[in-house]
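Escalated from tier 1: iron/sulfur cluster holo job.
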Amino acid sequence: MVSDKAPMIDPFGRAVTYLRVSVTDRCDFRCTYCMAENMTFLPKKDLLTLEELERLCSAFIAKGVRKLRLTGGEPLVRKNIMYLIRQLGEHIKAGALDELTLTTNGSQLARYAHELYDCGVRRINVSLDTLDAAKFKSITRWGDLNKVMEGIQAAQDAGLKIKLNAVALKGFNEFEIPEMIRFAHGRGMDLTVIETMPMGEIDEDRTDQYLPLSKLRADLEEQFTLVDIPYQTGGPARYVEVKETGGRLGFITPMTHNFCESCNRVRLTCTGTLYMCLGQNDAADLRTALRASDSDDYLSAAIDEAIGRKPKGHDFIIDRTHNRPAVARHMSVTGG
Ligand code: SAM
Ligand code: SF4
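Tier 2 regenerated the structure:
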C-alpha cells in the first residue's frame, strides 16, 4: 500500500510522519526511574489484538507515516509479537514505510534478532544504563546484564545496527558515561544519553535522580573533544562526534532544552489511545473508531481530528517544588 497522500500536518505546520506504538505496557524489568516495583498493568481485555494494531498502523501509513517504532513496556514480551512485526515489514517491502524499528531492553534479543532482520528491521535501540552487573540489577530490579549483552551480540551478528540509550542518573551512572562511550563506540554503536522525565509515580524521588545533560556534557568535555554535528535520525537527539573514539554521542534533553518545535511524531498505546504529545494528557480514542466499522473511514477521520489538536509542546519541570509527575501515566504506557 503506497501512500498517495501528502503527510498529515498539525496546527503548527509540523508534518506528522513518525508513529510510535506501545504494543504492551508490561515488562520483564522494573527500572526504578520508569516503574514502581508493584505495577498495576492494563487489564488484558482492554488490549487491542495484534490484528487491530496492524490495522491501525496501516491506516497511519496510508496517511503518510514513513517511520514506525514499536516500544512498550517491553515490546518483545508481547505474545506473538513477531506476527505483527512480520506484517508491518510488508510495508517496508512495498516501499510504503521507510523504517520499522523498535526500542527494547535487550532481554529477548538473542531469541529474536535474526527474525527481526528477516522482517525488514535494520536498526534498533537498546536501553542500557550501566555496564556493571550489580548496578544493572539494582537499576532494573529484575534484569540480567549477561542476557542483554548476549542479545546485543546476537543483534550485531544478525546485521542489526544498534544505538544504545542510557538514562543519565545522578549518582548512579554519571561517572560511568565515559566507559559507556568507549564500549559503544568500540563496537560500532552510537550512544544516546537521556534526561529523566517526570512521568508516572515511581518508588523514588525524581529530584534525586535528575541529572541535567548540560552538566554531563561539561564533565565529558574535560576528557573528550565533542564536536557538534548535523547528524539526525528523525528523533529529538542532538549529536556530537567524540574525536577520541570517532563515534557519535546523542543528547536528548527534554528538560533542559525544549525540542518540540521539530516534533514529527504521535504515540499510540496498546489500547488504541493516541497521545499527540508525550508530556501532555490530551488523547484520542482510536479504538472506538477502529471497532465501529470494517471500513477505515471513521478511523481516518478520527486520526485527522486528533492531529488537528496536536499541542505545541510539553513543559516538564523537576525541582524541589515540582517533584510530582507532570503526567500520571508511566513512560511504559506511551513508550519512550
Ligand atoms: N522496555 C523498552 C526499553 O527499555 O528500551 C522500551 C520501553 S522504555 C519505556 C523506552 C525508553 O524510555 C528506555 O530507554 C527507558 O530508559 C526510557 N525511560 C523510561 N522511563 C523514563 C523516564 N521517566 N525518563 C526518561 N526516560 C525514561
Ligand atoms: Fe521496562 Fe523499558 Fe521501563 Fe525498564 S525502561 S521498566 S525495560 S519499559
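Residues 8-163+262-334 form a domain with the TIM Barrel fold (CATH 3.20.20.70).
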